[in-house]
Protein 1
Amino acid sequence: MGRFVLSRDIAAPAARIFRAFTDAEVARDWMDATGIRDLSGRLDRAGTHYTLVIFGPWRFRSTVVRSEPPTLHETVHKGPLGASAHQVATLTEHDGVTRLELETEYTMPLGALGRWLDSRWFEATRGATSREFERLIELVAPSLA
């Protein structure tokens, strides 16, 4: 299992940043996903299930675990071949600046082989995640881009 935390102070209100996790089109954009489908409810409600389509066969059955607008959004994702992720976004606003901390724990598919591959290419995986994080910031605070 891997884990990483990305954080940034963003000159935007917490509610605008929180929307990046709860508006399906915005979330699809910054997550670099093909789509968010089969929504059972709203993304700002705990218990909502949906399918996160990354590309091709990579579909993750996802659930909103906790949602405390506009300060916390937690999801779990179960994908093919044993892939999974648990993501917690924590937002703390102070004087017009919001601290976004995005903690991700993940399991690579294919068991031991997946762990070995992850250990060899972790930087590439982290690079893609950092690009997604930067896209999220661009969407919520376009004047900073």
Protein 2
Amino acid sequence: MFYGEYHHILDEKGRFILPARFRQQISRQDVRSMFLTRGLDRCLFLFTDEEWHRQEKRFKALPLTSSEARRFNRLYFSGAVEVEVNPRGRILVPQYLREYANIEKEIVAVGVSNRIEIWAKDSWESFYSGSVDDFERIAEGILDLSGNGNE
């Protein structure tokens, strides 16, 4: 599982080094490659192979007769690329995904449990500043915080 927020810089080839904690996690899972695709809120989603196939199975089950499901799957899967994690822990972010996420140089890698999100630094800061004050209100709306174990 991936947790935390880490700031990095893309090199001249469009690569970044996975944070050490993320590298430790994927090393324990013997991950050699990962899947990178368009995420929500104009970030990128990075999944381990195992998690990618879990997500793929879920999305393939969406009804083909639903135009929204077809649109989502087209955008999600057409943007996907299997990326190698090189021995130094670097991952290449293809140009078309950098354009989608408005990534130029500075990025923020955010661990969100089963995935890593890759954000343009400015986009992450805008999202964070626009959301942090609503954190408790959002939690109250989606979680049972009573402690009754009904999560």
Protein 3
Amino acid sequence: MEAITLGPWAPEVELFEQAGQLIVRADLPGLTKDDIEIDLTDRAITIKGERRQEHEESDSGYYRSERSYGRFTRRIPLPDGTDIETAAAQFREGVLELSFAISEPQKHRARKIEIADAPGTPRAKAAAR
């Protein structure tokens, strides 16, 4: 799965098939459903959002944060057979879950291809005799 990520941080995503459904989950801690936008085409899902920084300083003046903040865009390609008309989304406890009906997975075949000698090379001329 190749995903395109733009922004200072990117939510972690998992994609799997379960009982004839394609499930996509994105970890979006610290966001609400109003912070998230989902765009869908027959080729990909694009999840956009922003995690806003809330800075609270104590009297000591010391503050440290290792969390990433800012806008993000995450594009996830969809496999063949994904029916985007059946898309449903839920957001619960910081996890966005999208589900889609999928048709029979495409069977991918593999084979080896032998590389032929180019015409005019000494080996090709010898094989032609």
